[in-house]
Write a structure and sequence with these properties.
The complex is a heterotrimer. By secondary structure, chain B is mostly helical. Chain B has a single domain, classed as Helix Hairpins, CATH 1.10.287.3510. Helix content of chain B is 77%, strand content 0%. Chain C is mainly α. Chain C has one domain. In chain C, strands 1-2 form a two-stranded antiparallel ribbon.
Chain lengths: 117, 101, 481
């Protein structure tokens, strides 16, 4: 348990220091708000639009497709570890799997799900 | 120091219970769905912890399949929720009540 | 390593055949015009037929063997039980495809995905039939379910269909969570996911000393209970069956029940056989609750699709008697499922004849005086409903007889008594429709649409129900040979 005590102490200390600095700043610092200062910070750019605006439905479509094709790649990792032992057979099997993914890709493409407009 | 396996299993059980509670209490379809995902990931955590404790790889193989199947479910589920949101204007499961005995 | 290289592709040959047919349907559809899409239906008929030929040939080859063939490191098995179940799935798929094209064209839903998803879902069932590992069980159930979530919502943007789809999806995914957690606990308790090793494990020999193992069994039963709509996890069934497009409902009623039953049989007898003193009493009580709840629910319905949904819950209860009986019980379950599938597909086929794209014969009142307008349809519907109720000399009577005798020989007399009382109760709601058709005056001309494909499916179903009722022992002898 000993190493965790150290982590806990560090956690409490760092939180405490951060809170203390902010409190000191707000208690003793002068406060002169201007509209520009109250703007949300977006890396120095002037913010555009509201934060809670609605997204076009196309984002969902692309995101959904991304999830599927992204996760299916997971099967390549265990295969990559042992493909030497699996030999030609393993290679062919992985190509079959990838061919199935390509079939899905052809379907998505032809259905026009990748067109933005 | 090594964290004992039982900690992971207890954490898995707690996460699973939070997921079940979420499914039963939440009314927004997206939130219900996120709770289901939490259940699945609690299962994954348990599998990996047990796999490590038992020194067998079967559990990790299972996790691979759970993750891919969960991704397929996410895709179908999100598409369904978007479709029903379009025709109903709401993703609240209580608003869907055309079907009843 | 050799264990994994010894793949033995024959064990998944039917599933592979279905998946590739489905892929071809999916891809060819992209280059087809709307009015050419009906050809995809004929192509998927070839798919189901071809898969059927494969399993029949495998069955003939496997029948005499002492030890069943296994593949994929023992994850799949090729035995007569699995192959007979697969024959049933492919028959149901074939008939469901026959029901679909007319309906889809009338509703402007004629899309290739319908047939592809049907093929994929059946491939999942085919994997379930030979599952010998918790991983295969999980994958089979998911490959079965995910296409069905989409199919239930196929009549989009009709709100009832979308709602059925969402409900089915959320509850199905919820059930998957339980199934998986149960699997994880069993794995933790025994260190394996293979049924063979599970059966031989210490935990299975003395389950009551292992809390994790017990909890795993309970959670797995909850998960599978959702899939076969066992009470008290059946609440989704009426809503989903009502909202889904009628051909999809017909497929779900007939096929998913069979898929769930084979999964349950594989898990309980092949995986958890030694621990049967844990699940046997539990499942017995749930069977009694399921059939009673289903029948009482069906009594209250005015929508025919909902009524058949509740009746399917009741039938799940009857089928559990066969599952609990083991051995002879499996033959009874198979024959009962065959009869049940034919009768339900027939009944839904009649419902599909009585619609014209706008009106659908869903309310029980729309059956008033049907015999006056369409005596053939009314007669067929009566035969199917009587068979569902289990009247002699229809096939349904013989199916129930098999199940109940198997139950009594396994010492489940109390459960059989409950089931017989339930069968009597069920006569009321089936007979109500028949009384409407023959003894009441019609209020309006019923909707009707002629379809040769639906007529063909109805002919197969009707001939099957009548022949199985008249010559019941033939099929039993064929199965047990």
């Amino acid at each position: 348990m000993v190493p965790y005590v150290a982590i806990a102490v560090l956690f409490v200390l760092s939180t405490g220091v951060a809170v203390m600095i902010m409190m000191v700043g707000s208690l003793f610092g002068p406060r002169r708000p201007t509209p520009r200062k109250l703007m949300p910070y977006e890396s120095g750019m002037v913010p555009v639009g509201r934060a809670m605006q609605r997204m076009p439905i196309r984002f969902y479509l692309i995101a959904t497709l991304f999830i599927i094709f992204d996760i299916e790649v997971i099967f390549l990792f265990p295969w990559a570890l042992v493909y030497r032992q699996l030999g030609v057979f393993g290679l062919l099997e992985m190509f079959t799997f990838l061919a199935l993914l390509v079939a899905g890709f052809v379907y998505v493409w032809r259905k026009g799900a990748l067109e933005w407009e | 120091m090594i964290v004992p396996v039982s900690y992971y299993l207890v954490l898995g059980a707690i996460l699973f219970s939070i997921g079940v509670t979420g499914v039963l209490l939440r009314r927004n379809a997206i939130m219900v769905f996120m709770s289901i995902e939490l259940m699945l990931n609690a299962v994954n955590l348990s599998f990996v912890a047990m796999s490590r404790a038992l020194d067998s790889l079967d559990g990790q193989v299972f996790v691979f399949f759970v993750m891919t199947v969960a991704a397929a479910e996410v895709a179908v589920g999100l598409a369904l929720i978007v479709a029903i949101f379009r025709s109903l204007g709401s993703a609240d499961v209580d608003d869907a009540h055309v079907l009843k005995g | 390593m050799e264990r994994f290289l010894a793949q033995n592709w024959t064990v998944i040959q039917p599933a592979l055949f279905l998946v590739f047919t489905g892929l071809i349907v999916l891809l060819v559809d992209l280059w087809l015009k709307e009015e050419e899409r009906e050809w995809l239906a004929y192509f998927s008929l070839v798919g189901f037929g071809g898969a059927g030929v494969i399993v029949v040939r495998q069955w003939l080859a496997v029948r005499g063997l002492e030890t069943p063939i296994t593949g994929f490191g023992g994850m799949m098995v090729l035995d007569t039980l699995g192959l007979l179940f697969q024959m049933l799935f492919f028959l149901v798929g074939f008939l469901a495809v026959l029901l679909a094209p007319g309906y889809l064209t009338r509703r402007r839903l004629q899309r290739g995905e319908f047939y592809a998803l049907l093929l994929f879902s059946t491939a999942g069932m085919s994997l379930l039939a030979g599952a010998q590992d918790l991983i295969m069980l999980f994958l089979g159930i998911e490959v079965l379910s995910i296409p069905l979530y989409i199919l239930a919502g196929f009549a989009r943007p009709r709100l009832d269909s979308e709602e059925a789809s969402l409900k089915y999806f959320l509850l199905g995914a919820f059930a998957t969570g339980f199934l998986l957690y149960g699997t994880a606990l069993l794995y933790g308790a025994t260190g394996t996911t293979a049924f063979e090793a599970l059966r031989a494990s210490e935990a299975a020999a003395a389950p009551r000393e292992n809390v994790m193992f017990m909890a795993g069994i309970a959670l797995l039963l909850v998960g599978l209970g959702f899939k076969i709509s066992m009470a008290p996890f059946h609440q989704w069934t009426p809503d989903v069956y009502e909202g889904a497009p009628t051909p999809v409902t017909a497929f779900m009623v007939a096929a998913t029940k069979a898929g769930g039953m084979v999964a349950l049989i594989r898990l309980l007898y092949w995986g958890l056989g030694p621990a049967d003193d844990v699940w046997r009493p539990l499942l017995g009580v749930l069977a009694a609750v399921t059939m009673t709840w289903g029948n009482v629910g069906a009594l209250l319905q005015r929508n025919v699709k909902r009524m058949l949904a509740y009746s399917s819950i009741a039938h799940a209860g009857y089928l559990l008697i066969g599952v609990l009986s083991g051995g002879v019980g499996f033959v009874a379950v198979l024959v009962y499922l065959l009869i049940y599938a034919l009768t339900n597909l027939g009944a839904f086929g009649v419902i599909l004849l009585l619609e014209d794209g706008e009106r659908e014969a869903l309310d029980i009142e729309s059956y008033r005086g049907l015999a006056r307008f369409h005596p053939g349809a009314a007669l067929l519907m009566s035969v199917f409903l009587l068979s569902l109720a289990g009247f002699p000399p229809t096939a349904g009577f013989f199916g129930k007889f098999l199940l109940f005798t198997a139950g009594i020989s396994a010492g489940l007399t109390w459960l059989v008594v409950v089931a017989v009382l339930n069968s009597v109760l069920s006569v009321f709601y089936y007979a109500r429709v028949i009384v409407k058709m023959y003894m009441q005056e019609p209020v309006e001309t019923p909707a009707f649409s002629r379809s040769w494909l639906v007529a063909g499916a109805l002919a197969v179903a009707a001939v099957g129900v009548v022949l199985l009722g008249l010559y019941p022992t033939v099929v039993v002898r064929l199965i047990t040979a």
